[in-house]
Amino acid sequence: MVDYDRIFSKRAKAMKASEIRELLKLTQRPGIISFAGGLPNPEAFPTKVTNEIVNELLDEMPEKVLQYGSTEGIPPLREALAERMRKRGMDVGSDHVLITHGSQQALDLISKVLLNPGDTIVVGSPTYLGATGAFRAFQANIKTVPVKEDGMDMDALDAKIEELEQRGEKPKFIYVVPTFQNPSGATMPGNKRKRLLEVASKYDVLIVEDSPYSLLRYEGEEQPHLISMDDEDRVVRLQTFSKILAPGFRIAWCVGPTELIDKMVIAKQATDLCTNPFGQYVAYKYIANGFIDEHINYIKELYDSKRLTMLEAMKEHFPKEAKWNRPEGGMFIWVKLPEYIDTREMFERAIQENVAYVVGDAFYVGDGGKNTMRVNFSHSSEEEIKEGIMKLGKVIKKEIKERKGKLRDTIISP
Questions:
Q1: Calpha distance 365→132 (Å, rounded)
Q2: DSSP state of 344
Q3: Enclosing domain of residue 170
Q4: Rounded Cα–Cα distance for residues 374 and 356 (Å)
Q5: Same domain flag for 269 and 146
Q6: 210 CB-side CA count, 13 A
Q7: Facing residues of 236 across strands?
Q8: In-domain check, residue 282
Q9: Which of 273, 290, 307 marks a domain boundary?
Q10: Last residue of a domain, which of 246, 271, 290?
């Protein structure tokens, strides 16, 4: 038998399966109401229009859509995306755009071209688990700063990077989801975004601006995008069609300085040659045929109703000890329970009641978040949301009652 442990690379030996992906396996049994995955609702998939576009493409240009494409992405899609971004205040051209197989590939490519083993980066705490997984795969030294209700703590960020520099650990980049952050739902206001750019400039650090949810705003005012505020070519921005078209196409785009994009293109050539051309042409037609904005508005109306339903159900069924945010957009609500509650320990009880969430500590690089959870409102029906939150509320109340009892018994025991 082959001794694979002997022949695996050090990098492979350090890899770990996504904790959320493993937890989601437990939610697949019939009857489970799952608030765990970050899944779009199937009602949001434009099946009729997609069918029309697919037939149009196969009738009119099969020799293009079924052929290999350029590594950078098909030119009409890159130009259409650049034009849409310019309309939102981002001064980019098509040469700044790289089409990727989902934003996860962009995170992988950024890591591949920027990180040597042991290089330092800074992320929020909590932060998107898929990003830290990509960074760990390239053996990054991940440092964290707290995420508050209005996003990453800028004073803590400044102090952290100064401390790192004094130790000779200059970070390569700061990873941030400034709008409807995953998992917390926090949105960074304009003044903090300005401060973030100032800190990055002060220490000559790049910023990776991950923006998968920014088009899904249900209330409040749109905040300026970091890349639109950047005049030093230090921001690379990630966006995706997964939340506004369908995740199954795996079409996303990365925008940044041409020097960085060019190097990512070379790295991508060794990875997959090119992103799925058929899906790219579908995405392009989705824009060119004038469907995208109408569909985004439909999704926003659909998800906003679900968001409000979940917030109202939480208000009705969660105990007073539970605290949660009111996200202005995105797909998640972040819940904090008393410090003596461990949501990982409580998870099995929730599964027994046929309701699921994601344990909060999965989003922390080190310790922290044991009393938190992330719940998704986009995927379930409104009736499922009402029922699932009622069940989850009962689980939380029972857990709090039992833990309080144990704490009381511990205090009064001789």
A1: 8
A2: H
A3: 67-290
A4: 10
A5: yes
A6: 26
A7: 208
A8: yes
A9: 290
A10: 290
Residues 226 and 309 in one domain: no
93 and 152 co-located in one domain: yes
The pairing of strands 151-152 and 355-356 is unpaired
- Quote the number of domains for the chain: 2
User: Residue 58 domain-assigned?
Assistant: no
My answer on whether 104 and 188 are in the same domain is yes
In a domain, 314, yes or no: yes
Cα 93 off chain centre by: 25
Buried b (16+ CB within 10 A) or exposed e, 146-167: ebeeebbbbebbbebbeebeee
Q: Are residues 153 and 299 in the same domain?
A: no
Is the previous residue joined to 183 through a cis bond, with omega within 30 degrees of 0?
A: yes
pLDDT tens over the chain, length 414 residues: 888 888 888 888 777 777 666 666 766 678 899 999 888 999 999 999 999 999 999 999 999 999 999 999 999 999 999 999 999 999 999 999 999 999 999 999 999 999 999 999 999 999 999 999 999 999 999 999 999 999 999 999 999 999 999 999 999 999 999 999 999 999 999 999 999 999 999 999 999 999 999 999 999 999 999 999 999 999 999 999 999 999 999 999 999 999 999 999 999 999 999 999 999 999 999 999 999 999 999 999 999 999 999 999 999 999 999 999 999 999 999 999 999 999 999 999 999 999 999 999 999 998 899 999 999 999 999 999 999 999 999 999 999 999 877 666 665 555
User: Residue 410 domain-assigned?
Assistant: no
Alpha helices in 15-167 (DSSP H): 19-25, 47-60, 62-65, 75-87, 102-114, 129-137, 154-166
The two three-digit tokens of residue 236, written as one number: 């690379």
Rounded distance between C-alpha atoms, residue 210 and residue 227, angstroms: 11
CATH number of residue 315's parent domain: 3.90.1150.10
